Amino acid sequence: MATENRIIKFLHIPLILLSSAVSVTLLFLLNHRFTGKFPRLVSPHPDTTAIIVQVSASILAASQVYVLCTLVNFATRLQVFRKFISASSLRLLAALSIPRIDWDLGYRGIAVAALFIVIGHVFGAVWAGALTPLAADSIRKDGTIQIPAYNGPFKMHWSLQSGGKIFLNNCIQHRLTSSIIISRCPTIYYITTLISTALGATSAPGVPRVYPKIEVPAWSYSNRSYGAGASQGLFSPTSNSNDSHTAYSYEEPGYWSRVACHYNETSNLTITRLDSHKDAPFVLLQVEGSLPNTVANNISSYTLMTDRTRWWNEALGWSAAAANGHNMLAITTVLSGHWYTPWNRMQCSVDFQPTLFNVAVNLTRSMINVTPSGPHADFDPTGSLQKAVMANLDLISRMSSNIGISSLGAALDANSAAMNASHPGMAKDEIYLRAGENMIAALVDDLLVAEASRQMIIGKSSVAAPVYKKFDAIRLGLPRFIYISLAINITLVLIVLAESLRTQAWYHLPVFNITNLQSVIAAALLSPSRCPIHDDESEEDGNAALGISEMNLQRFKWTYDKTGTVTMLVDLSSDVPSEKTNAASNPLEHFSSESLEPLV
User: Any residues with CB less than 8 A from the CB of 253 and at least 6 apart, and which?
Assistant: First the structure.
């Protein structure tokens, strides 16, 4: 018997190994992120990428379908020479070997053939899901960025003289760019930004508070800055690669300022009216007294001015100081006023807790997000930075306006309204206290950022911190499709291996192929069904017909591919094998397609 060509016989093995190798490769690349040229090549051309993915998926799915169909075909070709097979079964196996739907198969056969075709499309869909490039994040350590360092005592470049006058001899500015100016006296230069920060310090629950960076308004913070992230807009991180990145993060030590406010009825800070000329268009008010953490009456008094109207007494001021290991702020209002009296005699403590912060920078949105990571050693044990921040906080009240309304009083009132809207069941006094805490904490955060910028740019004191960048990256496929494709390939490999062992590597696989038309015609012409047995014929007639068929089988000896031998018998007249037909007793030897001509 002639056997099948070796290439045709074993072609399905390299094909299944190829698809399996692709699946294994995708599994190894599951957590890999492609950066550099690949994302720049793929992202701008989604249409071309989709075509390439679809073609690749179709080729790999076709290889799997070929393997499956080949196994069915080979098993059928080996079986038809060992036992009788009905025509309907042969049609079904032929349909599965291509695959296609033969509408003469009947309901069950059509369903099986259709399922086989659907499986092929499922293979293609799985491969498409496993090969499609998807946008992903690739985060790795790359370069450094400068963060502030406080080495030695922190020096303030302004001071208060007797009578509350501000000494500004050293209060100069450093122009970093045309739009970025760093000042040695942040409160004096950024007073407008600080008042704006105070107005929006309280946001609704679940709504992030977004506000500009004090010295670089092009950048914004999302929620609290905690005084960290001053480097953004001033320094760019160094880079060890040319890959484009959209975000980066680093760690920076800083102070987590915790503000706690309460009412102190014995507060010694007061605000009183000074005598002024009766024709003057303004009224002078003096803030004086002391704080709980200071010696009595050692607060440098200062003067507030309001316009001479019936609301002249609606004024608010505060004083703040870092002394004796405590950071305190006290608020006072005119006792005869009404607008700001809820904050009269309010005192707040500011606790600076050394903390390590994670600073996440989004380059696309120019947004900075700071989150506490954990406690950290005090980076400024001298306490100079805390004193500078509290002195700047004190200076805000001295520079704020009370003409018409108090800018600080209006900010406290705005925060109280926001707190009341988000916590409608909270007691009034509690609302005022929490609003005061939010506003003071926001101001302290901004002042810490401004002082950090001054330290790095003017003081030239900074250290490098490692940066973790998020690069534009591409990953191949979704994990679930990669796992499914691998499972399909493993299953097919096991089936191929089992069939190879069962059939001894398809030993003696005949050339005869049920999908080859001339092979089927030859088998049909030489089958006993060419002398069909009808129901109305007698048993003797049937035996006679069978005898004629057997004589024909003995008479015609055809060569098939010169050395081929066919011993298959197929009953085309019935789906049920005839009991009187025995394949083993009707050998067909050496027939060829050329010999069919006399029969046509």
Answer: 354, 355, 356, 357, 376, 377, 379
Handedness of CA 410, 413, 419, 420 (dihedral sign): negative
* Structure token digits, residue 276: 């002024």
* Structure tokens belonging to residue 282: 């303004």
Q: List CB contacts of 269: < 8 A, sequence separation 6 or more.
A: 287, 288, 289, 290, 291, 299, 318, 319, 330, 331, 332
Other beta carbons less than 10 A from residue 540's beta carbon: 8
Scored b (16 or more CB within 10 A) or e, 457-494 reads bbbebbeebebbbbbbbbbbbeeebbbbbbebbeebbe
User: Is the C-alpha dihedral spanning 337, 343, 347, 348 positive or negative?
Assistant: negative
Ramachandran bin of 409, using left for φ above 0, alpha for ψ from -120 to 50, beta for the remaining angles: alpha
Beta bridge partners of 135: 474
Over residues 494-539, the pLDDT tens digits come to: 999 998 888 888 777 766 666 666 565 655 555 444 444 344 444 4
Q: For tokens 């008094």, what's the residue?
A: 301
8 A C-beta contact, residue 178 and residue 218: no
Structure tokens at 370: 């700071």
H/E element, 173: strand 173-175
Classify burial at 421, counting beta carbons within 10 Å of its beta carbon; exposed 0-12, middle 13-18, buried 19 or more.
exposed
pTM: 0.69
Cα–Cα distance measured from residue 553 to residue 527, given in angstroms and rounded to the nearest whole number = 8
Chain centroid to CA 579: how far? 69
pLDDT digits (tens, 9 = 90+) for 57-100: 999 998 988 888 888 877 777 776 666 666 667 777 777 777 77
> Cα–Cα distances in Å, from 580 out to 143, 541, 547, 574, 586?
87, 13, 11, 13, 12
* Token code pair at residue 44: 């701008």
Written in H, E and C, the secondary structure of 357-376 is: EEEEEECCCCEEEEEEEEEC
3-state secondary structure of 225: coil
Residues 293-312 as b or e (16 or more Cβ within 10 Å = b): bbeeeebbebebbbeeeeeb
Per DSSP, which regions of 446-549 are E strands? 462-476
CB count within 10 Å of CB 520 equals 17
291 in Cβ contact with 346 (< 8 Å): no
Could you give the 3-state DSSP secondary structure of residue 78? helix
- The identity of residue 216, as a single letter, is V
45 pLDDT above the threshold of 60: yes
> Residue 544, SS3?
helix
Long-range contacts of 514-522 (CB under 8 A, 24+ apart): 514/73, 514/76, 514/77, 514/80, 514/90, 514/93, 514/94, 514/97, 515/73, 515/94, 515/97, 515/98, 518/593, 519/566, 521/596, 522/558, 522/560, 522/566, 522/591, 522/593, 522/596
Q: What angle do CA 446, 452, 455 make, to 5 degrees?
A: 145
Per DSSP, the three-state class of 241 is: coil
Asked if the peptide bond before residue 99 counts as cis, ω within 30 degrees of 0, the response is yes
